[in-house]
Design brief:
- The chain has 16 helices and 16 strands.
- It is 36% helix and 16% strand.
- The mean pLDDT is 95.
- The protein is an alpha/beta fold and 461 residues long.
- The strands form 4 sheets. A 7-stranded mixed β-sheet has the order 13-12-11-10-7-6-16.
Length: 461
């Protein structure tokens, strides 16, 4: 099968948190290095292009997260309608977790872990007509598991993707700036029970070479980026590696700002580095705090406590870097009092403008294969696996919490659509949680206040 003509290979991104998809740019770089000329499609910002699909003989669908997975299955259905004979490969984190379902619903192959090397080898096998097993590639009756070997990284190739201006921007108190996206590491050292990364990476992480990351940043700056998101699952898994990259980036681009994600645990132990990050242009740090309940934190194996979170807030403020916590606001173990405690904590610590309202309606996902799926604390609440939704169903023992989740989700959707003040939404959520009718109240925070920097795409999975 001829796969070296332009467009014979098509890589599709469905959603990557609003940024230009590295899950397509990186494998395109690998494929181009091997002599191929793939095209790209990102249905998050452009229409499904049936002509591109019809011309492709090999289609790769990037599924690094839950939302992308759900969209990707629909995309695969449309591909089969348009081009029933092409090879469809799902690759990324969720491809490994859901390979059985995908192979039963239109996929020819799946790849998880460090997927780019196996992806190139698979393309070569399809091209040659080989039926031999390809290391790292999951097919019917062939499941080698996620590919967890260090790769010789290629430089991400972004020219086939829509421009950076079509993606999430940095909102700095109402002024929007073009944002780029890179990853300095992949995988994670930690074993949080609800996270989809541990069952694939098993506590391992891989560093992307410094020169690859810096050249990718350089090219995105040339394309107009004035801010860079380091989207590593945890930027401080390799603290010396990350600090070297930030130092080199700041030396070359002194006005370039950035943000990153890290665990509370790392922010506590690497607190001495945060002032340098702040001085180098760090606008904010995202941290998956998840809960202020010690019970929930223990079950999720977050390896931090309520008091650790309070301490890190102080460390970040001293460094001049706002912390933007993310939450899993609804779990089977989160009581109504826990939810109200979370809201009180947010208000008391001046975090209202540092949290996107969608965070207050995030409901726990239990992916197949996750460490939480068979956890003793989860089993009493866990229902059947909803294969089409890629999560186990669960019901809260207190019906009020499931109802509150529905009401908060509805309220947040309406307020987001109308671009309501974050603080007004927050106080209406609190009234819902208190059993009151949410009023169109006057916000206690002034509307002309200086807001915390944020990306214009709200974080969710």
């Amino acid at each position: 099968m001829e796969l070296r003509t332009s467009g014979s290979i098509l890589l599709i991104s469905c959603y990557e948190l609003g940024h230009q998809p590295l899950g397509v740019a990186m494998p395109i770089g690998f494929l181009e290095r091997a002599g191929y000329s793939p095209l790209a499609m990102d249905i998050a910002v452009e229409d499904f292009d049936a002509a591109k699909v019809a011309a492709a003989r090999f289609v790769g669908i990037s599924v690094p997260m839950h939302t992308a997975m759900r969209l990707g299955v629909r995309v695969a259905e449309r591909i089969r309608e348009t081009d029933p004979d092409c090879h469809i490969c799902f690759y990324g984190l969720y491809a490994a977790l859901n390979s059985d379902y995908l192979l039963d619903h239109g996929a020819n192959s799946c790849i998880g872990g460090e997927f780019e090397g196996p992806l190139v080898a698979l393309v070569q096998a399809v091209e040659s007509g080989s039926t031999e097993a390809v290391p790292g590639v999951i097919q019917r009756d062939r499941n080698p598991g996620p590919h967890l070997y260090h790769l010789e990284f290629a430089l991400p190739s972004r020219t086939a993707l829509p421009g950076l201006d079509q993606y999430a921007h940095l909102d700095e108190n109402g002024e929007c700036r073009v944002a780029g996206y890179v990853e300095a590491t992949r995988g994670c050292l930690h074993l949080c029970t609800h996270c989809p990364i541990p069952p694939v990476y098993e506590g391992r992480f891989f560093a992307v070479p410094e020169e690859v990351v810096l050249e990718d940043i350089r090219r995105q700056v040339e394309a107009g980026a004035t801010h860079i998101t380091f989207g590593d699952p945890d930027f401080l898994n390799g603290p010396k590696h990350s600090l070297r990259i930030v130092r080199a980036m700041h030396k070359e681009f002194p006005s370039l700002t950035f943000d990153f994600t890290s665990k509370i645990e790392h922010l506590l132990t690497r607190g001495e580095d945060l002032p340098e990050y702040g001085a180098s242009g760090c606008m904010f740090i995202i941290s998956a705090v998840e809960s202020v309940s010690e019970t929930v934190l223990k079950i999720l194996a977050k390896e931090h406590t309520h008091d650790d979170f309070v301490q890190v807030l102080g460390i970040c403020r001293d460094a001049g870097i706002p912390l933007r916590p993310t939450w899993v606001a609804f779990t089977p173990w989160t009581t109504l009092d826990d939810y109200l405690d979370m809201l009180s904590f947010v208000e008391a610590n001046g975090l209202i403008d540092q949290i996107d309202p969608v965070q207050f309606c995030i409901r726990l996902l239990i992916p197949p294969g996750s460490l939480l799926a068979e956890h003793p604390a989860a089993l009493p609440h866990r229902g059947e696996l909803d294969e089409a939704a890629f999560t186990y169903r669960w019901t809260h023992p207190d019906p009020r919490m499931d109802e509150l989740h529905k009401e908060v989700s509805k309220l947040v959707a309406i307020d987001t659509e109308s671009e309501a003040d974050t603080a007004e939404t927050f106080y209406r959520i609190r009234e819902l949680a208190q059993g009151l009718e949410p009023a169109s109240l006057v916000c206690s925070l002034p509307p002309d206040r200086k807001r915390t920097p944020r990306l214009t795409e709200s974080w969710f999975c």
